[in-house]
Fold this sequence. Notes:
- The chain contains nine helices and six strands.
- With 217 residues, it is an alpha/beta fold.
- It folds into two domains: 1-31, no CATH class; 33-215, Rossmann fold (3-Layer(aba) Sandwich).
- Helix 5 packs parallel to helix 7 (124-136).
Amino acid sequence: MILDIFFPNRCLGCNRIIDADLLVCELCFEHIDFAHFNYFDDNFIKEKCRLLFPVEHTFALMQFEQENLSRKIIHELKYKSREKAGKVLAQWTSERLNFKDKRPDLLVSVPLHPRKLKERGYNQLHIFTEKLSEFYDIPFDHHLIRRNHYSKAQALKDKEHRLETENTFSITKEISGKHILLVDDVFTTGNTLATIAWEILKAGNNTVSILVMAVDM
C-alpha cells in the first residue's frame, strides 16, 4: 500500500523497518521481559491478589519496568492508538498460556468510563480480549462491568492516590456459577481488579482469575 511506502512500520525498539503486522524486529524481541508466569502456580500477582480478594489463577505476559520495551509496547497501545498491538500481544499470550482442561467460562476486560472511552476513541483492551477469545474459543463480554466514575489514568496518579478505591464498578446483568477471567493491561496495586472482582463474587457463585498484559513488579 502507498501508506506503507511513505510511512513504513518501524520496530518499537530500534526503529528499523519491519513487516506491517509486527511490533518489534527479531533482535529486539529477544529483549522483551516476558514474565514466565505459570497460570496455575503461585506467582507475584496471585500473592498480591490473595491479600485483596479470593483469586483462582493469575497470569502476566510481560514485566512492566521503568525503561524496558514492554512498557513502550503498552504505551503505544494505550496512549497512541496503536490498536494492532493488542492483536500481537494476544498472539504472544496464546503461545505462552495453556488453560489445559480448565478454561474460564468468560473473558471480561476492565471497562473505561464512557467519557474516557469518548476521549480515547477505543478501549485498548477490547481487541486484545477479542483475539484471546478467538484463540481459546472462550466468549467475551465487554458490557458485563460498568465503570461508574470518571477519573484520570492510573499511570498519572501518584502512589498514594492509586491506593484509593475511588473508581467503583457495577454488574449490569445477572451472572452466577461462572469462572470469569478478568483482563487488564498493567497490574500495579491490584485495587481496581479487586473492586471488580468483589462485584463479580457478590453477584453469585462465581470465581475470578486474572490475566494482564504486564505486571509492574
